Amino acid sequence: MNKAIAAIKSLHERYAQAHQAENISMLTEYIEAWNAPCYVSDAETIKTEQGNLLIPWQAAEQSEPADFKNVEQALETKIPQSVKTFFNTFWAGDLDCLWEQTPVILLQVQSEEDMRRLQENLIGHVLMKRRLKQPETIFIGVGEEEDLLITVTLDSASVGFEYVGKEQHLVVADSLPMFLQKLTPLITNK
């Protein structure tokens, strides 16, 4: 098993165990049209005060890992294998975690429809970086601060923080597997 697969599997296991230890369901936004493989099929949806629907989820391995050739062709560049592995190992809800004392949300994909949407957004992000003549990155998550992204550089595959429209201002790990190993799962009530 490569390091990226081991790291994402370990994070998902730690995330599920943390929720089980507190007897709290992992919840994600429910989108009826998706019929997402990660939705707990016999679970009832929960309506939030804001009117959003949430549903319990559990990670479901992608039987056919999502293909990133369309993204690489559109951008005429290679996406780091660790990023592809990060997004094409599981169908899952987003992961709330702590990096040191900083709350972060790692984006995950729930379904094939969600994967298409993610890939379109990744292409748009890289094109924006090119227009701004900045080093190219791929986002994998967001921070608690407005417009704070967690990104992986396309050239070195290091992980860092950047604000939308700005260059990475803080490198936090030399690789995505190293970053994932440093995270602590958070239990939140969405």
Structure report:
- By secondary structure, this protein is α+β, with helices and mostly antiparallel strands.
- It has a single domain (3-185), classed as Syd protein (SMI1/KNR4-like), CATH 3.40.1580.20.
- The protein has helices spanning 3-21, 69-75, 81-88, 112-131, 176-181; strands at 27-29, 46-47, 53-56, 60-61, 90-91, 95-99, 102-106, 137-143, 148-153, 159-163, 170-173, 183-185.
- The longest helix has 20 residues, at 112-131.
- The mean pLDDT is 93.
What is the CATH topology classification name?
SMI1/KNR4-like
What is the fourth-level CATH superfamily? Syd protein
Mean pLDDT: 93
Largest sheet: 7 strands, antiparallel
Rg is: 16 Å
Can you write the helix and strand succession as a string? HEEEEHHEEEHEEEEHE
Number of helices: 5
Our count of domains comes out at 1
- The portion of residues forming beta strands comes to 25-35%
Helix content: 25-40%
Shape: globular
The CATH architecture assignment turns out to be: 3-Layer(aba) Sandwich
Q: What is the number of strand segments?
A: 12
Helix-strand makeup class: alpha+beta
Given as residue ranges, the uncertain stretches (5+ residues, pLDDT < 50) are none
CATH domain class name: Alpha Beta
